[in-house]
């Protein structure tokens, strides 16, 4: 047996051992076939996996909210799409319908739809439908994903604007404004978030359950000499039958509370004003009580009846008769 062959012994069913001679070339050929089969299997698995990933990436669960004035804000939850997808929305009531579309991209999973004359179709009876349109060649066999909802059930207001802080004698007043909305006027509620500037403590939330666009913070609830930031959220009040999530947070406003030693700087002007007023009021009160008595004493003439009752009654108060009688 030459050096190019190798003897392998295999067992047969009969129990005999039969030498099997396989050349090195044939053995390498078998190894190549096995490697090619493994590579083919791996390639098939990769293609199937890529197809599944592409299919899942095209799946989009659409959710839309409205500012109940001019627009719809639609987002695609779930897996981020691998390519841009077209999202169409249609809103209708008894008088007609309006529709428009926007595009969701891999870098942004939401888009805003602003149908023309949208405000004309806003009512409690308005129903909307959002639909994902599959336009790619690989998506021709897929059905369009869609969702329906009542417009008043997903109202997300615009965030508050023009947030300001005003310092008073013993408090801070946070105020804000809302963009005009004729359909939701006086139907908002709010949430004010107060934090230290460097977020050293957990934020404190102040609910405002009515359409009151200010919140008063007492000085005692804040630390002196500390930087604070505040912002505000808005939502529709559930008592109005509207429903929906909170708006985005407004832009923040910053302020610094006065130092502990400076908290009572305002007391001196107040005291200098109040004390003289109190003194003047006391003097006026005493003058009002004592002056009439003084006038009464100055104008008082005593009656002789209290001192000479018998003579007064005998002569009728005329003492001249008594004196003349004695002189005679």
User: How are the strands of the biggest sheet laid out side by side?
Assistant: 6-5-8-9
Largest sheet: 4 strands, antiparallel
Provide mean pLDDT, rounded: 78
Shape: elongated
State the end-to-end distance: 198 Å
Q: What is the count of helical runs?
A: 4
| Radius of gyration, taken over Cα atoms and rounded to an integer in Å | 48 Å
Indicate the proportion of strand residues.
Answer: 25-35%
Low-confidence stretches: 1-20, 48-58
Q: Which architecture of the largest domain per CATH? A: Sandwich
Number of strands: 16
Kindly give the count of domains.
4
Instruction: Write down the CATH class of the largest domain.
Output: Mainly Beta
Q: Give the structural class.
A: alpha+beta
Can you give the helix content as a percent range?
10-25%
Query: Topology as H/E string?
Result: EEHEEEEEEEEEEEEEEHHH
CATH-defined fold name of the largest domain: Immunoglobulin-like
């Amino acid at each position: 047996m030459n050096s190019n062959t190798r003897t392998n012994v295999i067992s047969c069913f009969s129990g005999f051992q039969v030498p099997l001679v396989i050349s090195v070339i044939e053995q390498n050929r078998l190894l190549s076939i096995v490697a090619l089969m493994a590579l083919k299997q791996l390639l098939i698995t990769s293609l199937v996996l890529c197809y599944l990933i592409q299919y899942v990436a095209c799946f989009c669960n659409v959710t839309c909210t409205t500012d109940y004035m001019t627009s719809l804000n639609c987002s695609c939850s779930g897996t981020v799409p691998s390519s841009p997808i077209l999202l169409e929305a249609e809103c209708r009531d008894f008088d007609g319908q309006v529709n428009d579309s926007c595009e969701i991209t891999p870098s942004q999973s939401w888009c805003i739809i602003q149908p023309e004359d949208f405000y004309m179709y806003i009512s409690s009876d308005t129903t909307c439908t959002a639909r994902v349109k599959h336009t790619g060649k690989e998506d021709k066999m897929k059905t369009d994903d869609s969702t329906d909802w009542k417009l008043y059930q997903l109202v997300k207001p615009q965030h508050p604007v023009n947030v300001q802080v005003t310092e008073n004698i013993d408090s801070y007043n946070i105020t804000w404004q809302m963009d005009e909305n004729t359909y939701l006027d006086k139907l908002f509620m709010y949430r004010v978030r107060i934090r230290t500037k460097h977020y050293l403590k957990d934020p404190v939330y102040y609910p405002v359950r009515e359409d009151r666009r200010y919140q008063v913070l007492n000085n005692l609830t804040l630390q002196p000499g500390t930087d604070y930031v505040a912002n505000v959220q808005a939502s529709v009040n559930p008592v109005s039958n509207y429903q929906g999530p909170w708006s985005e947070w407004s832009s923040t406003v910053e302020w610094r509370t006065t130092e502990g030693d400076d908290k009572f700087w305002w007391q001196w002007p107040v005291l200098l004003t109040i004390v003289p007023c109190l003194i003047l009021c006391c003097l006026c009160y005493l003058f009002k009580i004592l002056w009439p008595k003084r006038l009464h004493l100055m104008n008082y003439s005593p009656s002789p009846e209290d001192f000479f009752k018998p003579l007064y009654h005998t002569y009728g108060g005329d003492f001249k008769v008594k004196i003349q009688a004695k002189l005679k």
